[in-house]
Amino acid sequence: MTTCKIDYQAPSELLDGRVILVTGAGDGIGRTAALTYARHGATVILLGRTTAKLEAVYDEIEAAGGPQPAIFPLNFEGATLKDYHDMAETLDREFGRLDGILHNAGLLGRIMPFEQCNPELWEQVMQVNINGPIWMTQALLPLLKSSPDASVIFTSSGVGRKGRAYWGGYAVSKFATEGFVEVLADELEHLGNIRVNSLNPGATLTQMRRTAYPGEDPASLLTPEAIMPTYLWLMGPESRGHNGERFDAQPPKA
Q1: Do residues 177 and 198 touch, judged by C-beta distance below 8 A?
Q2: Which residue of the set 84, 170, 213, 231 is catalytic?
Q3: Is 166 a catalytic residue?
């Protein structure tokens, strides 16, 4: 069972005082989520591989009067365990805790028959979509445990819940994401202060969507801004008690 909170009306102070890490924050849904979280009071840590894009988001947050964000350039493709632990040490020194993580960074790879799949590209997709986020989360768990109310959101996909031909590594990485969410949520359930859930953004107007469906009419898609209610609800305190669940950012098409 999945739940959508597209009609959720978030109070302006929803995330006041919270420290939230957003991966893939340079553009698309990650950029919009970072701006949205900051607008609702969060101190946002902007993580991505392109510093110039992160700086642009940083400037937008500051210009809008949001809490001063932080920038953390990191590329999952080449990141090591040491990178994640160094990152955790830095964030611990700067903030002392983490109240939320939005795992948004992702790599599509190529849509093609499995028979033609390139093992190197497959590994690359796995590294960015599942391996990197998993080991980064492990390194950041002590910071999440230091929060009185932490929410971890992993980005899923419709092809991570029902397999589809030609989606190969991307679909498999999202199935793995769904499984990892259930495992970690169950392990942390007894703590009571950390919830871990998956979120499928659905068909959204992003560069990844354009790459996957080049012939699609952009006017038929929701913008990243339009799907933010569920992102806010899941990151905010009203989602307490929801752990190891699947969410959709937009209602299923009729």
Answers
A1: yes
A2: 170
A3: no
